[in-house]
Design brief:
Radius of gyration: 23 Å
Largest sheet: 10 strands, mixed
Number of strands: 10
CATH superfamily: Bacterial extracellular solute-binding protein, family 7
Order of helices and strands: HEHEHEHHHEHEHEHEHEEHHEHHH
Number of domains: 1
CATH class: Alpha Beta
Number of helices: 15
CATH architecture: 3-Layer(aba) Sandwich
Structural class: alpha/beta
Helix content: 40-55%
């Protein structure tokens, strides 16, 4: 009896440890294992530390790894891109500070965060300006539109070398939103960005400014019942498990702006500068094409899983544009009235 009494708790502990060990193993699994470097970069002449806050399963984030490999090949192993997604280097505000002083050399910054560097960068966040995939390509390929945008961060010691995307913004909600009247019942989470705040005030929608890491619990507890984001991100990050409805407002593109510390770039030999910029442009264009494909694929997956998708009527969209008039007026002073007018008239 005494031996049984001693062995029983030992058996329980052994059983529990065996049951828990897979969970611990899973918890320790490297989320970036599929993107490990496959070459020896120890003798690279230059290292380019590049930051991003999200997961590379999103094509706009995977761009950093594709850029890493392509630049390594095209530069014959002279430049190594030390890519750090998943906010390994901190939040975007912290990384922008590090980027300005050169502690970090590059950043795939969300467009909402980049507007804090130069107000002209906020133009892409305004509703129904650079809102479709086709308009984004027009914006990027037109020197009269892209030039002022790409040069706007020079005073901060930064270069805007290109732009990639992660889908079109809409509303993921826990109740159906088919009309603007339905939207009045929703408390939307929006990003910590001045443009977004101004837009939601103008639209007269209830909103809560909230950091992205706080969103899952806020959705689960009902603190918010709507989310302003893209269908790609909502499906990949499992937000649709709670918010099972998505209204395709499509008022803006989710963008990552590729920022480079100008002082670091200027220290590169001229031949490597040319290679760097050409690879950025080539890989960014590829990524924008892949994002368009990912958009369709993720929506199809979400629909197959039971998520319902809605589109606002033309009249409701016209109302959103009309209500945003004060936002356009306010931001035209910050962006430049002539520049904003040129972008809007060109991207019709």
């Amino acid at each position: 009896m005494k031996r049984t009494f001693v062995l029983f708790p030992l058996l329980v502990l052994l059983t529990v440890s065996l049951l828990l060990s897979p969970a611990f193993a899973a918890a320790k699994k490297d989320p970036l294992a599929n993107w490990k470097t496959k070459f020896d970069y120890s003798k690279a002449e230059y290292t380019y530390i590049l930051s991003n806050i999200s997961h590379p399963v999103i094509q706009g984030v995977a761009n950093g790894y594709n850029f890493r490999d392509a630049l390594w090949e095209k530069s014959n192993g002279r430049i190594y891109v030390d890519y750090r997604p998943l906010a390994q280097l901190g939040g975007e505000k912290d990384v922008i500070s590090k980027l300005k002083i050169g502690a970090v050399q590059g950043m795939l910054s969300s467009s909402v965060a980049s507007a804090n560097i130069a107000q002209k960068l906020g133009i892409v966040n305004l509703p129904y300006v650079v809102d479709t995939y086709d308009k984004l390509e027009q914006f990027r390929s037109n020197p009269e539109l892209w030039g002022p945008y790409s040069n706007s961060a020079q005073s901060a010691g930064l270069m805007v070398v290109d732009i990639v995307n992660y889908g079109q913004y809409g509303w993921a909600t826990t109740t159906p939103v088919r009309t603007l009247a339905d939207a009045k019942t929703v408390n939307f989470r929006i990003a910590e960005a001045p443009v977004n705040i101004d837009v939601y005030k103008a639209w007269d929608n209830k909103f809560t400014v909230m950091p992205w890491p706080d969103v899952p619990q806020a959705l689960q507890t009902g603190v918010i019942n709507g989310l302003d984001h893209t269908a790609i991100v909502c499906n990949i990050t499992k937000k649709f498990t709670i918010a099972k409805y998505f209204t395709e407002v499509n008022y803006a593109q989710g963008l990552f702006v590729h920022l480079v510390n100008k002082r670091w770039f200027n220290k590169l030999p001229k031949d490597l500068q040319a290679i760097f910029l050409s690879v950025v442009e080539e890989e960014s264009a590829k990524t924008r094409g892949l994002t368009r494909e990912q958009h369709d694929a993720q929506i199809a997956k979400a629909k197959a899983a039971g998520v319902e998708f809605f589109q606002l009527s033309a009249a409701d969209k016209a109302t959103l544009v009309k209500k945003a008039a004060p936002v356009y007026a306010n931001w035209s002073k910050k962006i430049g009235a002539d520049y904003l007018a040129k972008v809007r008239s060109t991207l019709k």
